[in-house]
Amino acid sequence: VHTGLGSVRGTATAMIEPLPRMLSLFAALLLLGSSGAVQLFVVVSAPRSGTEWLRLMLAGHPRVCCDGEVLLRLGRRAQRPGGLDIRRALDAFARGAAPEYDDVLRPCRKPGVRARGFKWFDGQGGASVASENAALGNLSAWRAAHAAKLIVLERQGLAKLVSDRLKHLSSQRGVDAVPTHCRDASCAARVSAQRVTLDAGALETQLDAGVRRFSALLNWARAAAAFDDILYIAYGDLVADPERELRRAYRFLGVDEAWQANASVLTKSVSRPLAEVVANYGEVRAALLRTKWAGEVG
Fold it and tell me: Which of 9, 31, 37, 40 has the greatest number of beta carbons closer than 10 A?
């Protein structure tokens, strides 16, 4: 009696035999998909503008590497005996493989990275928008050669001046006494306990100077990169809705924007009202109420 088992076995074998080849093809497609071009980027801002918070949140994405102040470290090493060629080091950063610069570039070892960048403040690595010097031209040429995108983070106002002053206190007393960044509430409490005194007579000049410096940085970014290659983020927007701003950044960098970022990677250092942090707040308020900065103390 013919049971048909032979034909069943033959059919099953015919179905199973191609599986290894199909799996190999699937693995190859996955590998191809993970080996796409890496998008380079630079976070451009002024000090004490929330760049470290933004950097850590960006770096929390499994497909993003974001280093710190690369040009600052490269500039310091360039001044040591033996020196280095900063442009050559940045080219190595772009390739993602630079063992000779590992001590300053701190390479990211994440598998499948799709975006890699660092943060830069005006003046680091000798690159200055104020003087439009050769080092700035070098950075601009590197950005153009590698199609690096720019994330421009803006922060202005009295709170930034207070943050600048706290950073100065930290350099005087040490980061243990006055931490520059906090990851927990106890650290933030130590910072918030500090009192700073501001020069009320010079405040308007200082605030205006901050706007001019950032405007010069913004003008450089607009001249250096195309409109679609620049993402603008306001610090106030980042504080108000970090998840929304990070989704914008992820989309800009071409990575999965649905990734849930850890916005609490750093804790806001000064949680108290500025009136409780600025020792001469009454004097500061009186000085600013007569200026266009009145909204800072309104």
Answer: 40
